[in-house]
Design a protein that fits this description.
Length: 738
């Protein structure tokens, strides 16, 4: 019986996913009447990562990046506790480089990036020695590259979405990608904009209710050029992202109202308030890469220099704060004016070298080695006072061996990193006196090993065991002592400049078949895990970042594709069928169980479910149904879900026209309007706090993607010059890791 079940699992995987999707066709070459078509898989499981194709999947690329990510099986993203994939804390990279932001800042950045600007998402669950040890539990690498051709080509992507809650709101995104190559060099330009009108309502215990009307405007430009120097290549990249957001917030509740200053005097009162806030972020990145190539194509030497500069401004103005004092019912009406005026400035410079070559080891192998030097400076300011000056220098080197022996693949690596972290913080004490203090220094040399073994049972079926040790440095958004979201009379939202780095030991066992079907178990043991807490003291709520001394995250997950023809055709006929997934109906099931073990807490585990179904309707219309659900009552760090963190049903209908150059999709997200975040804070020896947030997640819209055809049918596709993963070795600019 067990053999039959195992065989059926493998067969269903082959039926659906070992074939190539015609609706994911990326390029086409026509030579003397012969057409060769290359395709991309919708999802691809590899030994150390899972790859999700965004570019050709309308159900993922019809909104912003954060909305698309929340539809990925196994990924949990919340405003309260950040982003995890299959039980692993995610460090988010953009085109192979760390974003260095988390929590609300990360969500805001991803909301400002149109999903149709993303090519694919790589979730690297077992980062090897070539990746920075600071990648923590796992890496999510957002890749925005497109392909460059011998002749000028252009692709336009547009999206319109609307919501209709308390009023009608619109969202639009537009982008165009231009690329070409001549005899001397290749170039590529990707520009776009987005405009979003959204609503956010929140409740914090019984002391604060807010309703926010949000306006967000974003712009981005990505430029790249590549120069061939014999076998070698020089690549230049420049990216800029700009977001300008306005929030208009009505709030009410009970608070200690400031009635006089110096010394500060407070009285309890019931209040209504109206505030306007503005966030302005500009992020710029420049990268120069020189790729040295040899006669042996598997021998490579890369040099890369990168520089990132990110500026952020956040201000909030209070127009009125009025109500009645609770002790005598006397009214009050205050105009607070500018109550928040914060800025931050981040600068990161790095230089790295990567070298690899084949070696004679067992039945064949490869050695990789390299080094990295990085300097980060981060300053924050509030009302003209520089209240944080943070500096970090990191120097690292790595060595990794890969080898084969019959049906076994082995990887053994080590990475050495030296950290020098220092800085000062400034604040006013209770007596309004300016105090300056040094940050807790972190000057250590650390060793990070990694090892994996994979047994290849048959073609595309393997069992793998992995181990790695990683470190996660506190992100700049967690270190920022200033509030960058919303400041009410009873809310205190601050970072923690004294956070310490987190050390992870990650273990995983996984069985995978034909890139799609898999079953796995992993455990991540963390020391000094950074987590968000919310606590209540009187009429005040405090939102802070803290270190958890010790915790473990257990995760079990399984994924299985099921073609519907298994229920209508004999197995012998199914095996002979020449599959084209555009012409078949199938379902993909994912289930995962996750449990957070934290000292002095009795957290319950929770289940994660994702169901994706494709149905082929008449007239060549493709219907995609995606349902995601995370069970309630589970413990998620220091929060317990009162309602499911994820509970949404999304439907997308897509049809292609004009020889598949034009793709039109109509969609409905969160049809039953059931997506809500509602949880209780769960702190030892502390009163629990109810937190509830609701976005206007139910929305409807239309998405268009038009590939302007080239006049020359023999136009040869060249490697992307914006960014490309290193391991795929196809001449891309942006390398994995660091």
């Amino acid at each position: 019986m067990k053999k039959i079940i195992f065989a059926l699992s493998l067969i269903t995987s082959v039926c659906v996913f070992s074939q190539e999707k015609s609706n994911n066709t990326t390029n086409e070459k026509q030579i003397e009447g012969v057409v060769i078509t290359k395709t991309k898989k919708a999802v691809e499981q590899k030994a150390d990562r899972t790859i999700f194709d965004f570019s050709e999947q309308p159900q993922l690329n019809n909104g912003n990046v954060l909305e698309g990510l929340k539809k990925l099986p196994g990924l949990v993203a919340t405003d309260l506790a950040g982003m995890m994939y299959q039980g692993k804390i995610l460090d988010v990279f953009l085109n192979g480089r760390p974003l260095n932001i988390t929590s609300n800042d990360l969500n805001a950045f991803l909301e400002g990036m149109p999903a149709n600007s993303v090519d694919k998402i790589e979730v690297i669950t077992q980062p090897g020695a070539e990746f920075p040890a600071t990648s923590g539990g796992a890496i999510m690498n957002i890749i925005t590259n497109k392909n460059a051709n011998k002749y000028l080509t252009a692709t336009y992507s547009g999206n319109y979405t609307f919501t209709n809650y308390d009023k009608f709101r619109s969202r639009t995104t537009n982008s165009i990608n231009l690329n070409a190559r001549n005899k001397l060099f290749g170039w590529q330009l990707n520009v776009g904009q987005n405009y979003r009108e959204t609503m956010l309502s929140s409740q914090q215990e019984n002391i604060l209710d807010t309703n926010s009307d949000r306006l967000a405007r974003g712009y981005f430009a990505k430029a790249g050029a590549t120069f061939d120097l014999g076998q070698d290549r020089l690549l230049l990249n420049y990216d800029i992202y700009h977001n300008n957001n306005d929030n208009y917030t009505l709030s009410s509740g009970i608070a200690n109202i400031l009635v006089s200053a110096k010394p500060n005097v407070y009285k309890e009162g019931l209040f209504d308030a109206y505030d306007a806030a503005n966030t302005n972020n500009v992020r710029q990145e420049a990268v120069v890469t020189y790729q040295k190539r040899f006669s042996d194509k598997s021998q490579k030497l890369d040099f890369q220099f990168g520089y990132t500069k990110s500026n952020s401004k956040f201000g909030q103005d209070n127009f009125y704060q009025k109500g009645k004092f609770t002790n005598d019912n006397t009214p009050f009406n205050y105009f607070r004016g500018n109550i928040i005026n914060n800025q931050s400035d981040m600068r990161i410079a790095n230089f790295k070298v990567d070298y690899s070559q084949p070696i004679k080891l067992l039945d064949g192998g490869k050695v990789s080695l390299g080094g990295l030097y990085e300097r980060q400076d981060y300053d924050t300011e509030s009302f003209g006072l520089t209240n944080l000056e943070y500096q970090r220098q990191t120097a690292s080197t790595y060595l990794e061996f890969q080898a084969k022996l019959k049906k076994f693949d082995f990887t053994l690596g080590s990475r050495f990193e030296n950290y020098d972290i220092s800085g000062v913080t400034r604040y006013f004490d209770k007596d309004d006196k300016l105090v300056q203090a040094d940050l807790l220094p972190f000057n250590k040399f650390k060793f990070f090993p990694n090892a994996s073994i994979q047994y290849n049972m048959m073609s595309q079926v393997y069992v793998a065991a992995n181990y790695n040790r990683k470190i996660s440095l506190p992100s700049i958004s967690a270190l920022n002592p200033n509030n960058t979201t919303f400041g009410g009379p009873n809310t205190q939202i601050t970072g923690n400049p004294n956070l310490q780095p987190t050390i992870f030991d990650n273990y995983e066992l996984k069985v995978s078949a034909f890139d799609y079907a898999f079953i796995g178990y992993s455990v991540s043991s963390a020391t000094n895990q950074v987590a968000q807490i919310v606590r209540k003291s009187g009429n005040n709520l405090f939102n802070q970042q803290v270190n958890i001394s010790n915790m473990k995250i257990h995760n079990f997950n399984v994924g299985l594709p099921i073609p519907f023809m298994l229920f209508s055709k004999p197995l012998s006929e199914v095996m002979k069928f020449n599959f084209n997934p555009d012409k078949i109906n199938f379902m993909y099931l994912y289930a995962g169980y996750q449990k957070h073990e934290i000292d002095n807490l009795n957290n319950k585990g929770f289940w994660i479910f994702n169901l994706m179904t494709q149905l082929i309707l008449p007239k060549g219309i493709n219907m995609n149904v995606n349902y995601s659900y995370v069970t309630a009552k589970g413990g998620y760090f220091y929060f317990t879900a009162d309602k499911p963190f994820n509970n949404s049903l999304n439907i997308t209908l897509t049809k292609k026209f004009m020889d598949k150059r034009l793709s039109v999709s109509v969609f409905a997200n969160d049809i039953f309007n059931s997506q809500v975040t509602q949880a209780y804070s769960n702190l030892p020896a502390s009163e629990s706090v109810l937190l509830r947030t609701k976005y206007d997640s139910r929305n409807f819209g239309i998405s268009i993607n038009y590939k302007i055809p080239t006049k020359n049918k023999l136009a040869k596709e060249d490697a992307s010059i914006l960014n490309q993963p290193k391991k795929e070795d196809n001449g891309g600019v942006m390398q994995q890791g660091q």
